[in-house]
From TrEMBL:
This is Protein-glutamate O-methyltransferase family protein. The keyword Methyltransferase applies. GO terms for molecular function: metal ion binding; methyltransferase activity; phosphatase activity. Belongs to the damage-control phosphatase family. Sugar phosphate phosphatase III subfamily. Residues 42-329 form the Damage-control phosphatase ARMT1-like metal-binding domain. It holds the Pfam family ARMT1-like_dom. Keywords: Hydrolase, Manganese, Metal-binding, Methyltransferase, Transferase. It catalyses: beta-D-fructose 6-phosphate = dihydroxyacetone + D-glyceraldehyde 3-phosphate; beta-D-fructose 1-phosphate + H2O = D-fructose + phosphate. Its cofactor is Mn(2+). The keyword Transport does not apply. One of its GO terms (biological process) is DNA damage response.
Length: 354
């Protein structure tokens, strides 16, 4: 990943040296504190206090991944006044993904939506939002992604049955490019079918996990959509208007890049999500932060694992890590010992109300 970052942007020797030091520290060294004065310094000081000075290999994986991305941004001068201030080191990868043949195919598929029955449309937009999560650049770098084998839990009907109360729907997004386009199509469907009268879209405040969506990526995807013909262009236009008129709100709370799970949500975010009719959480990392990043027995009830969450929840996720709950014994027996938990070949839709 660090090599990709170096070849995607012509950083000078100083930045390249910082990245080389980060590689050496994270693979063989001990955790160093942040040495920048970015506005989030104080927050990170409390999240890192327990781990500074300890070997990286002893730190919890969820924490290590997040801190690695925070340190990577510092190393490329993202927070310091200078030429690289605010320059997203992953932007070239995200742009390439948005312009790729695979994304073009995903977007083209949305043109079929108007010709489907209402039930088929319901199923198609949920399916696109779930499997869009396969397109994840950090994951592709670490595994080389495989095909889609099937859902291990839930389905479109279970998902839609959750939308029977008034109030805003919150969607906590994951990756940019094709996945975000599918999420925007889902938001459009929520609004056009009257399942939601307002949607709040949460993205990351700063670049993260290579392909995670930031506000700049939302604009990039939206500009791409509105230039396309057909239904996908119409979806882009409606989302654009939704943002202009407040039916859709965009947020980038700092907690979405925090190295801790959702049990530690700060009060402002908790209070906001408490008013949600439903919160939709996309992707593997959000799932790990939702249920807790632990090797749970897979039969642990989903409702039990997410009982701390302040609103009804729908998790849409491709499985990319060992963490999974809410499966039944028969499904686990069918899946057997293979790499289904981590290969990206299986997905799930899980819902619950508090
Ligand atoms: O983009 P997503 O679906 O959150 O996936 C991110 C996942 O990819 C990895 O970074 C690498 O497999 C996992 O650690 C992480 O949970």
């Amino acid at each position: 990943m660090l090599e990709q970052v170096c070849s995607a942007t012509p950083y000078g020797a100083e930045v390249r040296d910082e990245l080389a030091e980060l590689l050496s520290e994270t693979t063989t060294g001990v955790v160093a504190p942040l040495d920048d004065q970015a506005p989030d310094h104080g927050r990170w000081a409390s999240w890192t206090a327990d781990w500074v000075g300890r070997p990286w290999r002893e730190t919890p994986f969820l924490w290590a991944e997040s801190y690695f991305f925070r340190r990577l941004l510092a190393a490329v001068g993202y927070f310091e006044p200078g030429p690289w201030c605010g320059v997203d080191p992953f932007a070239p990868m995200k742009l390439a993904e948005l312009r790729s043949a695979a994304t073009a195919e995903t977007l083209k598929a949305f043109d079929a939506l108007p010709g489907l029955t209402a039930d088929e449309r319901d199923a198609a937009v949920v399916q696109a939002a779930v499997w869009g999560n396969q397109a994840d650049l950090a994951f592709q770098l670490s595994t080389g992604v495989s095909g889609a084998a099937g859902l291990v839990a839930g389905g479109s009907q279970e998902f839609w049955s959750l939308f029977d109360t008034a109030g805003p729907v919150h969607l906590v997004a994951d990756n940019a490019a094709g996945e975000l386009a599918a999420d925007l199509a889902l938001i459009d469907h929520l609004l056009t079918t009257g399942r939601a009268d307002r949607v709040v879209l949460h993205v990351k405040p700063t670049p993260y996990y290579v392909s995670d969506a930031t506000p700049a990526d939302v604009l990039g995807v939206l500009r791409h959509l509105v230039e396309l013909p057909g239904e996908v262009g119409a979806i882009g236009q409606r989302i654009w208007e939704g943002l202009r008129h407040g039916r859709i709100e965009l947020r980038a709370h700092p907690f979405f890049c925090a190295p801790v799970d959702y049990r530690a949500m700060p009060d402002d975010l908790r209070n906001e999500l408490a008013s949600a009719a439903v919160t939709i959480l996309k992707g593997d990392l959000n799932y790990r932060r939702l249920v807790g990043d632990r090797y749970w027995p897979a039969t642990t009830p989903f409702a039990e694992a997410v009982s701390h969450f302040p609103s009804p929840v729908a998790a849409l996720r491709v499985l990319k890590s060992e963490v999974v709950v809410g499966l039944d014994e028969a499904t686990i027996a069918d899946l057997g010992e293979g790499p289904w938990r981590t290969s990206g070949s299986h997905a799930l839709i899980q819902t619950t109300r508090p």
